[in-house]
Amino acid sequence: MKRMLLTVAAVVTLLMLTACGDREKTPDQGAKDKGKPENVTKEPPEEPPIKKPDETLNEIVDPVVTTTVYKNGKKCVELADADNPMMTDFGIIYTKHQFKGAFTRDEEYHLLVPDTGEDRILGTVNDLSYETVYDRVEINGKVYTLIMKGELDDLGTKPLILLEIDPMKGLTERTVCESGFPYAMLAKAADCLLIGNHNMDGSDTDSLWAYRPEDGTSYEVKRYPDAPLRHIYSDGKRAYVLCARMKDGKTQMVIEQYDSSFSLVAEQDVTAIFEKACAEMGDGEDRDMEMRQHVSGFHVTEDGMLYYENFSCTHFLADMNTGKILRSGECFCDVAGKPGELYFEYMKGFRTEASVPNTIYTLSKTELTTSEFKTDNPNYYITDMSVSQNGTRLTRIEYKDAENRGEDLAPAWVIE
């Protein structure tokens, strides 16, 4: 899920630090030196270097990676260079990309119907630099995600775009705002989509937007001073907003609760839970910085369970009623399941020994159960999961032999 996220982390940090400043224009490097004498003997020009085969970036071709798709134990189809799969009620949304610049690529969106093997191109997003693949949502037979275009190391403002993926009509792009931030937030509410953005216009503010799919309109719901917004979630009844505020020089983590008309109904201070989850960072600035990181996973259940995952190293599942941390670790990642359920997979990517099992945790209300995800070869490990609205689960696995014995096996997507 985070394969490309870490690639842009340093650039995003640079964007944050320079959001209030303007770019300086550099002088014309090709201007002549007017004080240079005209009668200087010129040295003969150097011979241009001989171009060797496969020397330029464009001539470097990565080997094709073939992914095998299985459903209920049977092989369905093989895909070349497929990435970012999402299980939906109408099939698998996935992408193929061709890199164009340091951070930009042309992203081709596909729909795969596993039962028939149909693989259809829905459209291409040109010059794409970032997609919030961790916040894709399915609503009314369509998938929505947030994207940005253009080189991320260009410090100018860029629009935040809502991408609609329709299996029948293809792709539609709608601009949310003109000063977008890559680590934006997207959540499905009762009758709309909630979008969170850190405004890159120098105002040091965050904005919460609402988008209504039925008429394609969007509006700003709330603007936060001092940029505290970290993530948003909705269970269809209430919306939950995670904020990182500064109080007396320290970080305070608060969850705001809003009703369907977006009136504030409650606030809960969860600082103590975050301090416990980040205890390895000590009790000073390192811990505060970790708590203020941008967030890629955030869920709150009506039973008081909190899941949190940031772009750094903190991931945990906690009971807000008791303050107890139920699960934590660098590889503990969430995915929405059936109504009332969340799935959490233990990715053994950092411990790829064959003896380490792939464990899937399932949360139903306040009960956390475990099951082992078994593969034909023990060197396969889970890298991602997604669950459709009807409860069909796709598990993405890759292969790594920690002892470097034998050839790597092809990645696979397993549908259950």
3D architecture notes:
The chain has 3 helices and 29 strands. It is mainly beta and 416 residues long. Among the domains are: 83-225, Kelch-type beta propeller (Neuraminidase, 6 Propeller), CATH 2.120.10; 228-330, no CATH class. Strands 3, 4, 5, 6, 7, 8, 9 and 10 form an 8-stranded antiparallel beta sheet that branches. It has a 5-stranded mixed beta sheet with strand order 2-1-29-28-27, with no helix packed on it. It has a 4-stranded antiparallel beta sheet with strand order 11-12-13-14, with no helix packed on it. Mean pLDDT is 84; it is low at 1-7 and 17-57.
For this entry, give a set of tags.
mainly beta; Neuraminidase; eight-stranded antiparallel β-sheet; 48% strand
Biggest sheet architecture: 8 strands, antiparallel
CATH class of the domain at 83-225: Mainly Beta
CATH superfamily of the domain at 83-225: Kelch-type beta propeller
Estimate the global geometry from the Cα principal axes. Answer: globular
Residue stretches low in confidence (pLDDT < 50, at least 5 long) are 1-7, 17-57
In DSSP terms, counting alpha (H) and pi (I) runs of 4 or more, how many helices?
3
Beta fraction: over 45%
Fraction of helical residues: under 10%
How many strand elements? 29
Rg, nearest Å: 24 Å
